[in-house]
Amino acid sequence: RSKDQGGGVFHAYEPQLHVEAEERRVLEMALRKALENQELYLDYQPVVDARSGTLRGFEALLRWRHPAFGLISPVKFIPIAEEARLIAEIGAWVVRTACAEAASWPGGVHVAVNVSPEQLHNPQFVTVVAEALSDSGLSPQRLELEVTESVFLREGTGAVRVLGDILALGVGLSLDDFGTGYSSLGYLSSTRFSSIKIDRSFVQTAATGRAEAIAIIRAVVAMADSLNMTTTAEGVETEAELRMVQELGCRSIQGYYFGRPLPVEEARALTQRHQQTRAA
Ligand code: C2E
Ligand code: MG
Ligand code: MG
Ligand code: MG
Protein backbone atom coordinates (compact mmCIF):
# COMPACT_ATOMS: atom_id res chain seq x y z
CA ARG A 1 0.00 0.00 0.00
CA SER A 2 1.51 3.27 -1.03
CA LYS A 3 0.91 6.63 0.59
CA ASP A 4 -1.41 7.66 -2.25
CA GLN A 5 -3.69 4.72 -1.60
CA GLY A 6 -4.33 6.05 1.86
CA GLY A 7 -2.79 5.92 5.25
CA GLY A 8 0.74 4.66 4.57
CA VAL A 9 3.71 6.84 5.40
CA PHE A 10 6.11 4.66 3.42
CA HIS A 11 6.46 3.35 -0.11
CA ALA A 12 5.02 0.32 -1.82
CA TYR A 13 8.21 -1.48 -2.84
CA GLU A 14 8.82 -2.72 0.68
CA PRO A 15 7.15 -5.92 1.84
CA GLN A 16 3.78 -5.20 3.45
CA LEU A 17 4.56 -6.42 6.97
CA HIS A 18 7.78 -4.48 7.12
CA VAL A 19 6.03 -1.32 5.94
CA GLU A 20 3.38 -1.65 8.60
CA ALA A 21 5.88 -2.30 11.39
CA GLU A 22 7.97 0.63 10.24
CA GLU A 23 4.97 2.93 10.02
CA ARG A 24 3.91 1.93 13.52
CA ARG A 25 7.40 2.64 14.85
CA VAL A 26 7.44 6.09 13.29
CA LEU A 27 3.93 6.89 14.53
CA GLU A 28 4.84 5.66 18.01
CA MET A 29 7.84 7.98 18.16
CA ALA A 30 5.73 10.88 16.92
CA LEU A 31 2.96 10.05 19.40
CA ARG A 32 5.45 10.27 22.27
CA LYS A 33 5.81 13.96 21.48
CA ALA A 34 2.21 14.68 20.48
CA LEU A 35 1.06 15.83 23.93
CA GLU A 36 3.88 18.28 24.62
CA ASN A 37 3.72 19.56 21.03
CA GLN A 38 -0.02 20.21 21.50
CA GLU A 39 -0.99 18.11 18.50
CA LEU A 40 -3.93 16.49 20.29
CA TYR A 41 -7.40 18.00 20.60
CA LEU A 42 -10.99 16.90 21.10
CA ASP A 43 -13.97 17.10 18.76
CA TYR A 44 -17.46 16.76 20.21
CA GLN A 45 -20.32 14.86 18.58
CA PRO A 46 -23.90 15.68 19.64
CA VAL A 47 -26.05 13.03 21.32
CA VAL A 48 -29.75 13.86 21.05
CA ASP A 49 -33.05 12.56 22.37
CA ALA A 50 -34.44 10.12 19.80
CA ARG A 51 -37.98 11.50 19.95
CA SER A 52 -37.65 15.24 20.53
CA GLY A 53 -34.22 15.86 19.04
CA THR A 54 -33.31 17.68 22.26
CA LEU A 55 -29.56 17.92 22.83
CA ARG A 56 -28.53 15.62 25.67
CA GLY A 57 -24.78 15.98 25.45
CA PHE A 58 -21.64 15.27 23.47
CA GLU A 59 -19.14 12.47 23.03
CA ALA A 60 -15.54 13.71 23.14
CA LEU A 61 -13.50 12.17 20.31
CA LEU A 62 -9.73 12.41 20.34
CA ARG A 63 -7.96 13.89 17.31
CA TRP A 64 -4.27 13.93 16.43
CA ARG A 65 -3.01 16.38 13.82
CA HIS A 66 0.67 15.77 13.10
CA PRO A 67 2.50 18.66 11.35
CA ALA A 68 3.82 16.37 8.59
CA PHE A 69 1.47 13.35 8.52
CA GLY A 70 -1.75 15.37 8.88
CA LEU A 71 -4.83 14.13 10.68
CA ILE A 72 -4.47 10.55 11.93
CA SER A 73 -7.55 8.50 12.90
CA PRO A 74 -7.95 7.34 16.51
CA VAL A 75 -8.72 3.91 15.07
CA LYS A 76 -5.07 3.88 14.02
CA PHE A 77 -3.26 5.68 16.83
CA ILE A 78 -5.20 4.54 19.95
CA PRO A 79 -3.97 0.92 19.56
CA ILE A 80 -0.42 2.25 19.15
CA ALA A 81 -0.82 4.36 22.29
CA GLU A 82 -2.10 1.29 24.14
CA GLU A 83 0.79 -0.92 23.08
CA ALA A 84 3.42 1.76 23.71
CA ARG A 85 2.01 2.35 27.21
CA LEU A 86 1.20 5.94 26.36
CA ILE A 87 -2.54 5.56 26.86
CA ALA A 88 -2.54 6.37 30.60
CA GLU A 89 -0.97 9.77 30.00
CA ILE A 90 -2.97 10.55 26.87
CA GLY A 91 -6.17 9.27 28.47
CA ALA A 92 -5.62 11.46 31.53
CA TRP A 93 -5.20 14.47 29.24
CA VAL A 94 -8.48 13.56 27.49
CA VAL A 95 -10.41 13.37 30.78
CA ARG A 96 -8.97 16.65 32.09
CA THR A 97 -9.55 18.48 28.79
CA ALA A 98 -13.11 17.20 28.30
CA CYS A 99 -14.06 18.16 31.88
CA ALA A 100 -12.47 21.61 31.57
CA GLU A 101 -14.09 22.33 28.19
CA ALA A 102 -17.55 21.04 29.17
CA ALA A 103 -17.62 22.79 32.55
CA SER A 104 -18.46 26.15 30.95
CA TRP A 105 -21.22 24.86 28.66
CA PRO A 106 -24.67 26.03 29.69
CA GLY A 107 -27.64 23.84 30.42
CA GLY A 108 -26.02 20.91 32.17
CA VAL A 109 -25.34 18.94 28.98
CA HIS A 110 -23.37 15.74 29.43
CA VAL A 111 -19.92 14.91 28.15
CA ALA A 112 -18.89 11.33 27.39
CA VAL A 113 -15.24 10.26 27.34
CA ASN A 114 -13.89 7.02 25.86
CA VAL A 115 -11.63 4.98 28.12
CA SER A 116 -9.31 2.14 27.07
CA PRO A 117 -9.31 -1.12 29.05
CA GLU A 118 -5.67 -0.52 29.94
CA GLN A 119 -6.62 2.66 31.86
CA LEU A 120 -9.12 0.72 33.98
CA HIS A 121 -6.54 -1.79 35.12
CA ASN A 122 -4.72 1.05 36.85
CA PRO A 123 -6.24 2.27 40.18
CA GLN A 124 -4.54 5.66 39.62
CA PHE A 125 -7.18 6.38 37.01
CA VAL A 126 -9.79 7.06 39.71
CA THR A 127 -7.59 9.88 41.05
CA VAL A 128 -7.25 11.28 37.53
CA VAL A 129 -11.04 11.44 37.18
CA ALA A 130 -11.60 12.86 40.67
CA GLU A 131 -9.01 15.59 40.09
CA ALA A 132 -10.36 16.44 36.64
CA LEU A 133 -13.78 16.95 38.24
CA SER A 134 -12.59 19.07 41.13
CA ASP A 135 -10.18 21.16 39.03
CA SER A 136 -12.83 21.91 36.39
CA GLY A 137 -15.82 22.21 38.72
CA LEU A 138 -17.80 19.92 36.39
CA SER A 139 -20.56 18.14 38.26
CA PRO A 140 -19.89 14.36 38.25
CA GLN A 141 -23.45 13.76 37.01
CA ARG A 142 -22.47 15.49 33.76
CA LEU A 143 -19.56 13.14 33.07
CA GLU A 144 -19.95 9.72 31.53
CA LEU A 145 -17.17 7.25 30.74
CA GLU A 146 -17.54 4.91 27.79
CA VAL A 147 -15.97 1.47 28.02
CA THR A 148 -16.24 -1.55 25.75
CA GLU A 149 -16.97 -5.13 26.72
CA SER A 150 -13.30 -5.98 26.18
CA VAL A 151 -12.50 -4.44 29.56
CA PHE A 152 -13.99 -7.59 31.14
CA LEU A 153 -11.90 -9.97 29.04
CA ARG A 154 -8.87 -9.92 31.27
CA GLU A 155 -8.74 -12.14 34.33
CA GLY A 156 -9.22 -10.69 37.77
CA THR A 157 -11.51 -8.06 39.21
CA GLY A 158 -9.15 -5.07 38.99
CA ALA A 159 -11.22 -3.26 36.39
CA VAL A 160 -14.49 -4.03 38.15
CA ARG A 161 -13.14 -2.42 41.32
CA VAL A 162 -11.90 0.67 39.44
CA LEU A 163 -15.30 0.97 37.71
CA GLY A 164 -16.98 0.73 41.13
CA ASP A 165 -14.77 3.53 42.49
CA ILE A 166 -15.64 5.67 39.46
CA LEU A 167 -19.37 5.06 40.01
CA ALA A 168 -18.88 6.09 43.64
CA LEU A 169 -17.72 9.51 42.40
CA GLY A 170 -21.18 9.95 40.83
CA VAL A 171 -19.90 9.53 37.27
CA GLY A 172 -21.99 7.54 34.76
CA LEU A 173 -20.76 4.56 32.75
CA SER A 174 -21.84 3.46 29.33
CA LEU A 175 -21.14 0.29 27.45
CA ASP A 176 -19.82 1.26 24.02
CA ASP A 177 -20.13 -0.65 20.73
CA PHE A 178 -22.49 -3.11 22.39
CA GLY A 179 -22.88 -6.39 20.59
CA THR A 180 -19.58 -6.34 18.74
CA GLY A 181 -17.31 -7.68 21.44
CA TYR A 182 -17.12 -10.72 23.59
CA SER A 183 -20.43 -10.64 25.44
CA SER A 184 -20.66 -12.51 28.67
CA LEU A 185 -23.60 -10.70 30.22
CA GLY A 186 -22.37 -11.50 33.73
CA TYR A 187 -20.60 -8.20 34.06
CA LEU A 188 -23.92 -6.38 33.72
CA SER A 189 -24.73 -7.56 37.23
CA SER A 190 -21.33 -6.64 38.68
CA THR A 191 -21.13 -3.10 37.30
CA ARG A 192 -23.93 -0.56 37.22
CA PHE A 193 -23.95 0.86 33.70
CA SER A 194 -26.22 3.82 33.02
CA SER A 195 -26.47 3.24 29.30
CA ILE A 196 -25.77 0.87 26.44
CA LYS A 197 -24.61 2.17 23.09
CA ILE A 198 -25.89 -0.06 20.31
CA ASP A 199 -23.24 -0.41 17.64
CA ARG A 200 -23.75 1.17 14.25
CA SER A 201 -23.54 -2.22 12.53
CA PHE A 202 -26.89 -3.27 14.11
CA VAL A 203 -28.49 0.08 13.32
CA GLN A 204 -27.47 -0.19 9.67
CA THR A 205 -28.59 -3.78 9.26
CA ALA A 206 -31.90 -3.21 11.07
CA ALA A 207 -32.76 -0.33 8.75
CA THR A 208 -32.49 -2.66 5.76
CA GLY A 209 -35.32 -4.66 7.29
CA ARG A 210 -33.28 -7.65 8.46
CA ALA A 211 -35.46 -9.39 11.05
CA GLU A 212 -32.53 -10.68 13.12
CA ALA A 213 -30.95 -7.26 13.61
CA ILE A 214 -34.35 -5.78 14.49
CA ALA A 215 -34.98 -8.53 17.04
CA ILE A 216 -31.54 -8.02 18.58
CA ILE A 217 -32.03 -4.27 19.05
CA ARG A 218 -35.51 -4.86 20.47
CA ALA A 219 -34.09 -7.37 22.96
CA VAL A 220 -31.23 -5.06 23.98
CA VAL A 221 -33.69 -2.19 24.57
CA ALA A 222 -35.91 -4.47 26.69
CA MET A 223 -32.93 -5.71 28.69
CA ALA A 224 -31.70 -2.15 29.23
CA ASP A 225 -35.17 -1.05 30.36
CA SER A 226 -35.44 -3.79 32.94
CA LEU A 227 -31.91 -3.09 34.23
CA ASN A 228 -32.67 0.65 34.48
CA MET A 229 -30.28 1.59 31.72
CA THR A 230 -30.93 3.77 28.70
CA THR A 231 -29.95 3.00 25.13
CA THR A 232 -28.19 5.09 22.52
CA ALA A 233 -28.17 4.14 18.85
CA GLU A 234 -24.75 4.84 17.33
CA GLY A 235 -23.99 5.93 13.80
CA VAL A 236 -27.47 6.98 12.66
CA GLU A 237 -26.88 8.39 9.17
CA THR A 238 -30.24 8.29 7.41
CA GLU A 239 -33.87 9.05 8.08
CA ALA A 240 -34.71 5.37 7.59
CA GLU A 241 -32.23 4.45 10.33
CA LEU A 242 -33.64 7.16 12.59
CA ARG A 243 -37.21 5.89 12.13
CA MET A 244 -36.15 2.32 12.79
CA VAL A 245 -34.36 3.04 16.09
CA GLN A 246 -37.18 5.37 17.21
CA GLU A 247 -39.65 2.57 16.57
CA LEU A 248 -37.48 0.14 18.50
CA GLY A 249 -37.47 2.47 21.51
CA CYS A 250 -33.85 3.65 21.63
CA ARG A 251 -33.74 6.65 23.96
CA SER A 252 -30.91 8.64 22.41
CA ILE A 253 -29.20 8.76 19.09
CA GLN A 254 -25.85 9.83 17.77
CA GLY A 255 -24.73 9.98 14.15
CA TYR A 256 -24.04 12.01 11.07
CA TYR A 257 -27.78 12.47 10.50
CA PHE A 258 -27.85 14.84 13.49
CA GLY A 259 -24.30 16.01 13.48
CA ARG A 260 -20.70 15.13 12.89
CA PRO A 261 -18.06 15.61 15.56
CA LEU A 262 -17.56 19.37 15.99
CA PRO A 263 -14.68 21.58 17.12
CA VAL A 264 -15.12 22.69 20.73
CA GLU A 265 -16.21 26.25 19.83
CA GLU A 266 -18.99 24.92 17.59
CA ALA A 267 -20.12 22.47 20.27
CA ARG A 268 -20.33 25.32 22.73
CA ALA A 269 -22.29 27.45 20.23
CA LEU A 270 -24.73 24.58 19.66
CA THR A 271 -25.24 24.29 23.41
CA GLN A 272 -25.98 28.01 23.66
CA ARG A 273 -28.45 27.97 20.74
CA HIS A 274 -30.13 24.99 22.34
CA GLN A 275 -30.44 26.87 25.66
CA GLN A 276 -32.09 29.83 23.91
CA THR A 277 -34.58 27.57 22.12
CA ARG A 278 -35.57 26.00 25.40
CA ALA A 279 -35.88 29.35 27.15
CA ALA A 280 -38.00 30.81 24.32
P1 C2E B 1 -16.56 5.15 19.34
O1 C2E B 1 -16.34 5.49 20.76
O2 C2E B 1 -17.55 4.07 19.04
O3 C2E B 1 -16.95 6.53 18.65
C1 C2E B 1 -17.87 6.63 17.60
C2 C2E B 1 -17.16 6.70 16.27
O4 C2E B 1 -18.13 6.64 15.23
C3 C2E B 1 -16.40 8.01 16.06
O5 C2E B 1 -15.30 7.73 15.21
C4 C2E B 1 -17.42 8.84 15.32
O6 C2E B 1 -16.86 9.90 14.57
C5 C2E B 1 -18.03 7.78 14.42
N1 C2E B 1 -19.38 8.11 13.98
C6 C2E B 1 -20.32 8.83 14.63
N2 C2E B 1 -21.44 8.92 13.93
C7 C2E B 1 -21.24 8.23 12.78
C8 C2E B 1 -22.06 7.96 11.62
O7 C2E B 1 -23.21 8.36 11.51
N3 C2E B 1 -21.48 7.19 10.65
C9 C2E B 1 -20.20 6.72 10.75
N4 C2E B 1 -19.74 5.99 9.74
N5 C2E B 1 -19.42 6.95 11.83
C10 C2E B 1 -19.93 7.70 12.82
P2 C2E B 1 -13.82 8.26 15.54
O8 C2E B 1 -13.89 9.65 16.07
O9 C2E B 1 -12.98 7.98 14.36
O10 C2E B 1 -13.38 7.35 16.75
C11 C2E B 1 -13.20 5.98 16.55
C12 C2E B 1 -12.96 5.24 17.84
O11 C2E B 1 -11.73 5.67 18.44
C13 C2E B 1 -14.02 5.51 18.90
O12 C2E B 1 -15.17 4.74 18.63
C14 C2E B 1 -13.27 5.08 20.14
O13 C2E B 1 -13.30 3.68 20.27
C15 C2E B 1 -11.85 5.51 19.82
N6 C2E B 1 -11.57 6.78 20.51
C16 C2E B 1 -11.86 8.05 20.12
N7 C2E B 1 -11.44 8.95 21.04
C17 C2E B 1 -10.89 8.23 22.07
C18 C2E B 1 -10.30 8.57 23.33
O14 C2E B 1 -10.24 9.73 23.75
N8 C2E B 1 -9.83 7.53 24.09
C19 C2E B 1 -9.94 6.23 23.68
N9 C2E B 1 -9.44 5.27 24.48
N10 C2E B 1 -10.50 5.87 22.51
C20 C2E B 1 -10.98 6.86 21.71
MG1 MG C 1 -17.50 5.93 22.30
MG1 MG D 1 -19.19 3.56 20.03
MG1 MG E 1 -18.33 2.35 17.56
UniProtKB/TrEMBL annotation:
Residues 24-275 form the EAL domain. This is Diguanylate cyclase. It comes from Sphingomonas endophytica. The chain holds residues 503 to 782 of 782 of the full protein.
